[in-house]
Amino acid sequence: MIELNRLPGDPSELHLRICHDDGLWDTGQADTLERWDVAILHRRRIHDPELSGVENGDCNGVDCLLCRTDETNVGSMVFYRVHLDRGRNAFAAMEEESEDLSEIAQVVLDPATGYYTDEVSGLLEYAGSALLVMDRVTLHEEWRGQGLGSILAGEAIFRLMPGCRAVVCTPGISDLGTDIRRSDEWDRVTAKISMGWQHIGFRPYRDNVLLLSPTSLDLEEQRGHLRRQLTEPSAAWSATRK
């Protein structure tokens, strides 16, 4: 349940900007690994006194022609589409790219072939050959703790997973505050993050790796519910600001 009073803005005004920067590099690494950056943005309408010559209180609401739209970055996500059938051996490409990708490759890919292990292949129906890795999800502190990360990640996954046979992630914490460095707090927060990812369809596989099958109905069934968690509170949030 989203606690509206704790949010700095209307949650229904959050949206995503998904971008792949293709450098046109003719290399096996670039052909195998595609990095997709997702900006999490929040829109708000601002009654601009310089435009209208009147005070903010004279704004007549959503139809006010004297308002401008302000767009603020409130977080980001990083995904990798890993193509197992072109370029380099995907295991080697992930191992070279980062430690986090290497740990995932060691769990789901065969080092010799760069393809899914027999066990992972047996768990997944064929829906394409690529692997989608959710590498990082970050929200600014004032937007955290309301389940928004899993809602927004679910939307990004829905857009990026066509042609993929599996989506994987490892629950982790990128912003290490003093309290989180304590082992008990680390365990509590990572367990909460893991449950959020499981809520959108990820399932524990092994060694802290979570696996989602694009052919399962979990994400599709949850998507409508998750979207309502953003849109339905909008009227209530606006009411609290009157």
Ordered list of secondary-structure elements with their pairings:
Elements: E1 14-20, H1 28-32, E2 33-47, H2 49-52, E3 67-82, H3 90-97, H4 99-108, H5 118-123, E4 130-139, H6 148-160, E5 164-169, H7 183-199, E6 203-206, E7 209-212, H8 218-231, H9 233-240
Give a written overview of the molecule:
The protein is α+β, with helices and mostly antiparallel strands and 242 residues long. The protein has one domain (26-39, 76-232). Helices cover 35% and strands 26% of the residues. The protein has nine helices and seven strands, in the order βαβαβαααβαβαββαα. It has helices at residues 28-32, 49-52, 90-97, 99-108, 118-123, 148-160, 183-199, 218-231, 233-240, and strands at residues 14-20, 33-47, 67-82, 130-139, 164-169, 203-206, 209-212. Strands 1-2-3-4-5-7-6 form a seven-stranded mixed β-sheet. A hairpin with a 2-residue loop joins strand 6 and strand 7 (209-212). Helix 3 (90-97) runs antiparallel to helix 4 (99-108) and helix 6 packs across helix 8 (218-231).
